[in-house]
Each structure stands twice: as structure tokens, then as C-alpha cells.
Amino acid sequence: MSRALQQELHARLTLAAEVLDLPLTGQHLEALAVELTPAIAALLASQQATADETTPVPYTLTDTPDDAKTEVSLEGTCIARIGLDVDLDSPAAVLAQRLRSSQYDVVATEVPDEATLMLTVRPQSLDCWRWWMAKCSAYRERPKGKLAEATGSWGGVTVHLRGEGVLDMQQQGSARLLSAVLGGLTLGGER
User: Fold this and answer.
1) Residue 2 burial (CB < 10 Å; 0-12/13-18/19+)?
2) CA-angle at 79, arms to 76 and 84, nearest 5°
3) How many domains does the chain have?
């Protein structure tokens, strides 16, 4: 269960109770938040799944030349691309296969050589993105178009990490924080 979702729900319920002048105590509101969080989480997941099914997703793997000889396959919902001259038992190929089969966030992998992995993920939250950055020992994030990119290493393999939707999540988080800070202010600066 998402603690953040539960806290957000509690805040919304508190606001609604105040606006509607409902006779609910803090204990009532907390109990409502705890009870409603699973149902709200399921509803949000269902809506997200429906949106994912109907929304076309553009994928950017790497900037490889058109004459590069690679094999492209679709494994589940993940695009896998590997150079024809790359050994399937190489460290990069093994890591790519392991991540495609065990990590839901992975949407594309490309192995141009035996020691390099281009990894595209769609993290579910900024915490997930931080986890990917830490796993790849990548600490310098940079924007490129609509993607966040970072380079690091994982088990001796150089990993070029790309995060879809990360920049949008960061902007939404900044906007929420600004809204929360300025939420109670009026034009005159009064609360």
C-alpha cells in the first residue's frame, strides 16, 4: 500500500470535511483514509492500465546508425535489441535479459557490444527512478528531449540509463510542492 497515497487521501478527506462542515474527528478521517486507500489504489491502477492499453508509446532506444546490424525482438512489452556480433553470454546481454525478465519498469534494452547496455525504463515514481539511478551507480542525471538520462555501471557493464516520464514526474512534483506552499495564500499575502 502506498503510504503517500494514504497521506494524500487523508489530506483530501480533511479538506472535504472542513469545506462541507462535516462532524468528523481526526480519528474518523484517518480511519477513512486507511479503509479507502486500497480501493482508490485499485481504481487508479485500473485507470492507468486502460490508459496504457489505448495510448501509443513512442520508444527511443539509441542513436544508432541505420546500417548497424542488430536483432530486434519484442519480449512481452519490452523491446530488446542486440548487436549480431554480440555473444548472448556476454555480461551486457545477460544483464539485459535478467532485467527484461524481472523488472516491470524496463521497456527497452539495447546491447551494442559485450560491455554496454542501453536501458530504457518507465519508473512508476521518482523513488523508482532514484532506485534505478542507485542500482546503475549513476549520479548525474541530464535531460534529453522528454527523457532523463544518466550513465553508470552495473556489475562491470556500462549502463546508459534512460527514464521515460521522469521529467514530467519531477515537474508535477515541483508544481505540487509549490501549490502546497502557496495554497493558502491570497493576492494580499494573507491566509
Assistant:
1) middle
2) 120
3) 2
CB 6 within 8 A of CB 33: yes
Would you say residue 176 lies in a domain?
Answer: no
Report yes or no: 100 and 80 within 8 Å, Cβ to Cβ: yes
pLDDT tens for each residue of 63-96: 455 556 788 888 778 889 998 889 999 999 999 9
For residue 119, the enclosing domain spans: 70-169
Does one domain contain both 17 and 97?
no
Per the domain annotation, does 182 fall within a domain? no
Residue 185 forms part of a structural domain: no
pLDDT in tens, 103-143: 888 999 999 999 999 999 998 888 888 899 999 998 777 77
Are 26 and 80 in the same domain? no
Amino acid at 68: A
Burial class, 141, CB count within 10 angstroms (exposed 0-12 / middle 13-18 / buried 19+)? middle
If asked whether residues 158 and 102 sit together in one domain, one would say: yes
Angle, vertex CA 119, rays to CA 106 and CA 133, nearest 5: 90
